[in-house]
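Materials and Methods. Structural model of Kynurenine formamidase. The 218-residue sequence of Kynurenine formamidase from Halarsenatibacter silvermanii was retrieved and submitted for structure prediction as follows.
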Amino acid sequence: MSKFVDATLSIYDEMNSFPADYHHDTEIKRTQTHQDGRCAASCFKFSSHTGTHIDAPFHFIPEGQKLDEIPVNKFIGTGVLMKFMDRGPEAEITAADIRNRGELRKGDILIAATGWSDEHFGEKSYFQKNPYLSSEAAEMMVEEEITAVGIDAPTLDSSRNLQQDKAPVHKSLLGNGIYAIESLTNLAAVPEGRIKVYALPLKIKDGDGAQARVVIEY
Ligand SMILES: [Zn+2]
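The predicted structure was written out as tokens:
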């Protein structure tokens, strides 16, 4: 019997977003309540990169695929979960680290579990000192022709690079049609090894990214 883990952060009012002027503050407002026999309804406002979400190639690549142009079957697939837990702030995950944890197969969705979201989501440091992939690791994933890479941290690149408008990992992955899954959570219980991933984002027309409900089956 397989088990299912919900690897998704809940979205809530005033939830933290990436600290940049182009990311909106999160607003989740109940616009009607059950009062007087009415139905409950809400309105949402949040950045395309708040919480657990998918980065489409278009996020960094002007001619890259937009979210609604990625074939839907790419969001469900087999892959591998590798653990790089408790390495501390700003830990770099290298190509050698990945090779040491196991085998990547063509078409895989690689999930890198670091424990960062579980420990630091809601703190300022979450977006400042996240674990990240090395550019060599990203190049290796391109060579292995994987489908996607996910991490339980806000971004695949080091925040230091992003602050300087550099994003070597995003550029090499998204530039080769490999989409990203960011701000995953709840991965500690999943054992290392082969998994099935369901990572279906909102179908935003011409989207650069959007929230996804991500489930891991093992
Ligand atoms: Zn993103």
